[in-house]
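Students often ask what a 'structure token' actually looks like in practice. Rather than answer in the abstract, let us consider Conserved protein, a protein of 386 residues. Its sequence is given first.
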Amino acid sequence: MAETLTLSERDIERLLTEPSDTVRAEVAVKVARQYEIVELTDRQRELAQDILGFMVHDAAVLVRESLSKSLSTLPGAPRDIVRILARDIDEVAAPILEESPVLSDADLIDIIVKGSAAKQVAIAGRATVSAPVSEALVNTDNRRAVVRLVGNDGAKIADATMNKVVDLYGDDESIAAPLVRRSDLPLTMVERLITMVSDRLRTYLIEQHDISEDVAARLIDESRERATVNLVDSDARADDMPHLVRQLAGNGRLTPSLILRAACLGEMLFVEAAFAYLTGLPEQKVWRLVHDEGPLGFRAIYSRAGLPEVFYPAFRVALDIYHELMEAHLDLGRPAFRARMVERVLTQYQGMETKDLDFLLAGLAKLIRHEQQLNKSAGRAAEKVA
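Now compare that with the structural description of the same chain:
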């Protein structure tokens, strides 16, 4: 077997006397395969590398393509030749980019940044892709590369990179489908995707990750609340608010957490309309009570609205910060104002350790559920005593 792989004088003679593309391609393959021979002498290795150095610049694509395919899987292939092939035209580079173990992460990232979309797709399909390489691929915004990457079980994708994939492509079925089936999907990502993907993929996530119906329903409700507040931000006018609030109430979606979410984002027109609906008070009186900075006004209307007591401190903090920002007359657009509101609320609210607005609201809802369970337990105990 070794004799058939060894480069012979006859091969060199053919290369000189029959310089057709086909002959050069055949010799290129044979030269490349020399690197499979462990017992290759120093002279043989030097000769093979000299010939490869000549052929890697061959004008014929067929020759360079044959060379690339032959070297692509060899761990002993000369690094300088492999790197040249990796930067060649797409059809020559593809085998090397998909398979060569010689290329380092630094090589791959450099090609991702400077190379073509096709090269990025080739790298995304490697048997193993490191987390830094995955991050570089996602940062290209090359959708085809991301599709291949998330469907590649050999690709390591850091949580931050996966979050970016969801931000960019969460509503893209061709990316969401392989993403939800990844074995390394963290629970936080499962929870995000449940609220974004189709019913079919949501069912898969819930069953695969053993998510309870209650948790899934809560996550979907939270997603709807975010969408509702975004609707308030983008579309609703002041005179639309009462109608929107009535519609939400009629659908059972005017929840305490929705109203608090709006308050923490500074959407006070919605908050005022919600309190007016819950209390039945005139709009002007609601405005005065909601924006009363003293200790009694807001407390009175809050109690009348029947909202959970555990939410009250967060409402109070949100209103105080809203008044501070309004009085400062900051020249902020609506998105920036919202971001400043949330940042200040999370910084100043002392009821719990907070990470983001959803975390705060989920924690408060958990306290309510715990309180309800205690009340049920106390009720059952009282029934037994009676």
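One point worth highlighting: The chain has 24 helices and no strands. Ask yourself how you might have guessed this from the sequence alone, and why that guess would often be unreliable.
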